[in-house]
Amino acid sequence: MTTSADQLREEVRAKYAEAARAVTEGSQGSCGSGSCCGGEAPASADFGEALYDAEQRGELPDSAALASLGCGNPTAVADLREGETVLDLGSGGGIDVILSAKRVGPSGLAFGLDMTEEMLALARRNAEDAGVPNAIFLRGVIEDVPLPADSVDVVISNCVVNLSTDKPAVFAELARVLRPGGRLGISDVVAEDRLSPEERAERGSYAGCIAGALARGEYETLLAGAGFEDVSVEFTHEVADGIHGAIVKARRPETATRVEPAALTAAPGCC
Fold first, then answer.
1. Residue 199: helix, strand or coil by DSSP?
2. pLDDT tens digits, 82-93
């Protein structure tokens, strides 16, 4: 039986709500001490708080580090600057928003977007504990960002784009909210081009960040189709056979034509 997009989204929401409750209640649950994403990967795979150095972890409340469920460290590759406005897609417990808020300083802003109430509550508490008033958390989905056009300098994300059931809509939204010259610094799970969607699904579930992973070529094609330039997808570590943690970078041109999601195409079944 085919699982609908709504069912997949609810599966993801429920899993990450459980992770937030596990941290809040002081238990480990299914994801509490590591990563929902990492739960189906080999034990040697890099996920969660281990991807942040000791200095970064020292800037965070313990509950923010424990709630880190990502496959990378986007703040390490986004080259954040004083006074910039940053948007973190799928901000979870707030680790990347808090670090971003510290990097951009009091003259900048760091927005976190998440669809899970439990994660938003945890993130707001963590930001308050960390003393970062320029961290702002919004409820919503990454396919429909509740921010105006041309309002963000940098978009980051940590192992979340693969969870979307409508990736063309995500990339169109990134092109919409980024200012001309704005940039992406995304950590995500990405498949080798040799793997079909069916083969990716054999290696892990959608909520486990595996089945929904784009192939490298699909990622590049969709970002270019959304109007981005200087697109790069760099594998960093393998999390399953043919599936990798990756750093994705791209830039919105200074002069850009907006592309509607329906105009983006990729391999059948990929998104």
1. helix
2. 999 999 999 988
Number of domains composing the chain: 1
Q: Is the dihedral of CA 100, 101, 102, 104 positive or negative?
A: positive
Contact between 264 and 172 (Cβ < 8 Å): yes
In this structure, what token pair is assigned to residue 144?
A: 């429909």
Quick check: is 191 in a domain? yes
* Residue found under tokens 């509550």: 121
Which CATH number is 103's domain given?
3.40.50.150
User: Is residue 245 within 8 Å of 234, Cβ to Cβ?
Assistant: no
Report which of 219, 209, 217 is spatially closest to residue 249, judged by C-alpha positions: 219
CB contact burial 67-89 (16+ within 10 A = b; e otherwise) = bbbbbbbbbbbbebeeebbbbbb
22: phi then psi, degrees, rounded to nearest 5: -60, -40
Q: What is the pLDDT of residues 93-146, one digit of tens each?
A: 898 999 999 999 999 999 999 999 998 999 999 999 999 999 999 999 999 999
Q: For residue 142, tell me if it sits in a domain.
A: yes
Q: Residue 269 falls within a domain, yes or no?
A: no
142 lies in which domain range?
5-263
> Tokens 């880190």 map to which residue?
68
Residue 268 is assigned to a structural domain of this protein: no
Closest-CA residue to 157 (of 109, 211, 112) = 112
The values of phi and psi at residue 9, to 5°, are: -65, -40
Q: What are phi and psi of 261, to 5 degrees?
A: -55, -35
Percent of the chain with pLDDT over 70: 73
Tokens linked to 200: 């990716």
DSSP 129: H
What DSSP state is assigned to residue 147? S
String of DSSP letters for 51-102: GS-HHHHHTS-HHHHHT---SS-GGGTS---TT-EEEEES-TTSHHHHHHHH
